[in-house]
Amino acid sequence: MSSTTIPFETLSQRIEQIFLNVGACPAQAGAVARVIAKGERDDCKSHGVYRIAGLLRTIRAGKVDATSDPVLDDAGGGVIRVDAQGGFSPAAFELGAPVLAERARDLGVAALVINDCTHFSALWPEIEALTDMGLAGLAMCPSYAVVAPAGGTAPLLGTNPIAFGWPRPDRDPFVFDIATSVAARGEIELHRQQGKPLPQGWALDAEGQPTTDPEAALDGAMLPFGAHKGSAIAIMIELLAGSMIGDRTSREALDYLGSTTILPNHGELILAFAPERFSAGGAAAAMASAETLLGGIEDQGARLPSQRRFAARARAQAGGIPLSDAEWADLDRLRDVGLDAV
C-alpha cells in the first residue's frame, strides 16, 4: 500500500480545517486536531484520523457543541473546575492545564475537574502536558456503558481509561495509559474493519456468552482486564470521575446518547503532583530515587510503558508521519464533504 509522509503541523492543519469547515470554532478545532495528529505521530492508529468520522457524527447528532468556549472556575483552592459547555475535552484541558500546574506547584497537589465534555482521545496527551512541566500526573474518565462488570453479563461500566505520568529530566517521561477493559473499544472496531477475530476473553455477545466475533462483541459487552481487579478499578473511576465530580457515569452517558455510534459526554478528573513538595530531600532526591527504580527496570531488559510510542514519535519527528493513500484521500473527502460524509 503506497503512503504519504507529512510533518506533524501539516497533518494537524489538515485535520483542523475539517472541523472549521463544519462550523467548529478555532479553539475547539485546533485542540481536537492537535490531539488526533499526536495519535498518528505516535502510531496509535486507534486514536488517530480514524477518530474523525466519530467526532463528525457526534457534531451532526447535536450531542457536542463544537462552537463552545469552555469556562474556567477557579476559587484559588486545590480544585480547579472547567465547564466544557458541551464541547470537546481538549479545549477545556488546554484552558485549565496552566492553572492546574501553577496550583500544584503552590500546594504540592491540585485537581482539575472538567465537566460536560465529549472525550474521545487517549489520556496521555493530558498527562504529557503535565510531565513536560515537571509534574507527575494522574487522569481518568468514564466513557459509556460497554463493559460488563466481573461476573456480569451485560454492559454497565465504561472502558474507563486511567493514565499516569512521571517526569524524567532530559528523557522521555514514564507514562502509562490503559483502558480498564481488556482492550480499548477502538481496537474492537479496528478488528471488525479488518475482518479479524478477537482474542479469547475480550468480549461477550448479547446473550452474555463469550465471543471472538467483533460484530457480536459490539452488540454485547467487553470485559474488564484482570477480571475482578480491572472491574474494581473501573468502578473506582465511575465514582471519582463521575459521581464525585457531579457528572455522568458511563450508564448515564449511554442513556443520554442513546447510541454507541457517537462519542460519550461525561466529565474528566486530572490530578497533578509536584514531586519536590512531597520529597523530604527536594526535587533532586525524588528524581534520583525514581531514576534508580526506572533504570533498574531497563537494566533487566524490560520495556517501560510508552516506549513503542516514543520510538514511533522519534521516527515521525525525523521523517514525517506516514499516512496511506486511502487515509489521505479520506481526509480530503471529509474536508470537502463535511458532515454529509458521515
Automatic annotation (TrEMBL):
<dbReference type="InterPro" id="IPR003767">
    <property type="entry name" value="Malate/L-lactate_DH-like"/>
</dbReference>
<dbReference type="InterPro" id="IPR043143">
    <property type="entry name" value="Mal/L-sulf/L-lact_DH-like_NADP"/>
</dbReference>
<protein>
    <submittedName>
        <fullName>Malate/lactate/ureidoglycolate dehydrogenase, LDH2 family</fullName>
    </submittedName>
</protein>
<keyword id="KW-0560">Oxidoreductase</keyword>
<comment type="similarity">
    <text>Belongs to the LDH2/MDH2 oxidoreductase family.</text>
</comment>
<dbReference type="Pfam" id="PF02615">
    <property type="entry name" value="Ldh_2"/>
</dbReference>
<dbReference type="GO" id="GO:0016491">
    <property type="term" value="F:oxidoreductase activity"/>
</dbReference>
<dbReference type="InterPro" id="IPR036111">
    <property type="entry name" value="Mal/L-sulfo/L-lacto_DH-like_sf"/>
</dbReference>
<dbReference type="InterPro" id="IPR043144">
    <property type="entry name" value="Mal/L-sulf/L-lact_DH-like_ah"/>
</dbReference>
